[in-house]
Amino acid sequence: MYDLRHTCLTTWLNIGVPPAQVAEWADKSVPVLLATYARRISGQLKDLQKRIEAGDDLPDPAADD
């Protein structure tokens, strides 16, 4: 059963589900989740770099004023 849970949580993180959401579903805190699974997250670097370069989905700092 643990292997299935581990696979599920790792898959969710790797497809880009926000860690806060995965932690909620897993009934864990975000720090505990990331301490356990951060080194298993892979395959997102190129997508994140493209989003940063394009400015997609980045918060607007002026919107906080």
Unreliable spans are none
DSSP, total strands: 0
Class from helix and strand fractions: mainly alpha
DSSP helix fraction: 55-70%
The N- to C-terminal Cα distance equals: 48 Å
Broad shape: globular
Beta-strand percentage? under 5%
- Output the radius of gyration: 14 Å
Q: Could you give a short account of the major beta sheet?
A: none
Helix and strand string, N-terminal first? HHHH
State mean pLDDT (0 to 100 scale): 80
Chain-wise SSE layout:
Layout: H1 2-14, H2 19-26, H3 30-37, H4 45-54
Folded structure, characterized:
The protein is mainly alpha-helical. The chain has helices spanning 2-14, 19-26, 30-37, 45-54. The chain contains four helices and no strands. Helix 2 crosses helix 3 (30-37). The model has no long low-confidence stretch (mean pLDDT 80).
Keywords for this structure?
single chain, 65 residues, mainly alpha
